[in-house]
Amino acid sequence: MMFRFAHRNLLQSRIAFPTIPNNPASTSSGIIPSKTSGDISSVFPSLSGSSPEPLPPRFATVKKRLIHGHEVQVRDSWKRLLDALQKRREEIKTKGSSIVPEINFCNLNDVEKRTEFRDALHQTGVAVIRGVVEGKEALGWKELVKRYIASNPGVKGFPPNNPAVYELYWSPSQILARAHPNVLRAQCFLMSHWHSALGSSDTKHFISTSHPLSYADRLRIRQPGDSSFALGPHVDGGSCERWEPTGYGLGGVYNCIFEGNWEKYTPWEMTCRIPVKSDVYNGPGGCSMYRMFQGWVAMSEIGRGHGHLKVCPMIKEATAYMLLRPFFAPSRTPDDPQYLDVANWRLEDPVSSSLQGAVPSNGQELNAELHPHLALDDTMVHVPDVRPGDYVAWHCDSIHAVDSIHTGASDSSVLYIPACPLTEANAEYLARQRETFAEGIPAPDFPSGEGESQYRGRLTPEYVMKNISLQAQRAMGLAAFDVRQHELFDRERETLQMANQILGFGKA
Q1: Which residues of 287-326 are buried (b: 16+ CB within 10 A; e: fewer)?
Q2: Contact between 396 and 268 (Cβ < 8 Å)
Q3: Crossing angle of the two packed helices 71-95 and 315-324, in degrees rounded to 10
Q4: Helix, strand, coil content of the chain in percent (nearest 5)
Q5: Which three-class secondary structure state does DSSP give residue 68?
Q6: pLDDT digits (tens, 9 = 90+) for 281-294
Q7: pLDDT band at 15 (very low <50, low <70, confident <90, very high)
Q8: Distance, CA of 66 to chain centre
């Protein structure tokens, strides 16, 4: 049966986008190459079953340069880090899932509850916002997307024979969820917990956390018994890029760690990440957009072991360990009782090219063998049980995973919706994404192909312009930001003007 949406035939006419002036990132320029075809397994060797090749020798040089002149400080900081990790492991083991902060959407303006939530979020890097969307509405999105899939045979996903993660970006459910005013408000709330080390009048960078941008990502409907989507501990937003001078090095994001002073590192400073290139290799699924948080909105009840999210809730210590691990090697074998002792670990000599789990064009994967001091079997805890309409979010550097087997009795379904601030690079990405939206092809960061261009029932920019809020239109790059709105810092106003220029709206 032909799919129809919400009592209204979908619009088929084409919207005329504004001319994008001098935008070198536009797909029409040919400068940004298309991604190769594939699915989510293209991003993770553990899903594809491939065996990564050793990194080329140049990475040994990269490592040497990163800590040059700070070798003694890095060695000493490693000792302090291992001690801190032991304390955090004990805390996580004691608290379990209760360590993850929660807040009800209706309490976002409650100062006391916001403060308590903030303090825990800054420690853990993960959170649950309850009741962002009415449960009935979220369940309706699931039924809507199931009808969309049924009306378009051949929808791609992973695994191919019985998909759990679908290569869908423009279904009605995804568009409506990204446009939902409560989701946009929740994104603003989450991003407000980042800070700038620079003043609001700084002229170096453009950024606004109160104007979230829409990032088109996939969706998941994982059925009971599934063991194929067994995505283990990993970090998104690049892999080798975290050590490369042309990646995260462009913003000096982790300089404190590489200088032997990990305690001074703050995961929540936002301006240093603005220049970062997190997708140096243009991999299929490598994210080029600045996502402060990854996240999803639940479309089902999801509990422990039922295809749920697992996280390592110690954002600062875990990030420091992941980044310093490639510089150290053990003297004893893993079966030795003293294997984890600090005295067993020394700075590599000679320096290898290994970055433990980092593979170009892939996500960063972690495991007990490569990252033993993280004790991932103990420190990867389930997010608290969620209900339809809850929003789960985690810091862009957070180690996370999914249950290896879905042991529940019903589907585990979510819409992936990250929180992205307005920056110059993000506005440029949004301009490219807007083109793919109009064509119905996969968003620029994802595997290429004809996607949903011929699908029945997909939503279009025309539908958004006639049926969805102005705030959502702006988040999707379809309408100009209001530079005349009150209570804007001068730099924030300039950020909106910059984005309007990039999106072809001039000085609107």
Answers
A1: bbbbbbbbbbbbbbbbbbebbbbbbbbbbbbbbbbbbbbb
A2: no
A3: 140
A4: 35, 15, 50
A5: coil
A6: 987 767 899 999 99
A7: low
A8: 25
Amino acid at 135: G
Is the whole model's pTM more than 0.85, yes or no? yes
CB half-sphere exposure, 187, CA atoms < 13 A:
33
Q: Locate tokens 């700084």: which residue?
A: 202
274-324 pLDDT per residue, tens: 999 999 998 776 789 999 999 999 999 999 999 999 999 999 999 999 999
CA 475, distance to chain mean position in Å, is 17
Q: What is the pLDDT of residue 198?
A: 73
CA distance 427 to 421: 9
Q: Tell me the domains of the chain and their CATH numbers.
A: 27-502 (2.60.120.330)
Q: Where are the alpha helices (DSSP H) in 325-418?
A: 376-379
The Cβ-side half-sphere exposure at 67, using a 13 Å CA radius, reads 27
Q: Is the separation of the CB atoms in 463 and 440 below 8 Å?
A: no
Coil, strand or helix at 469? coil
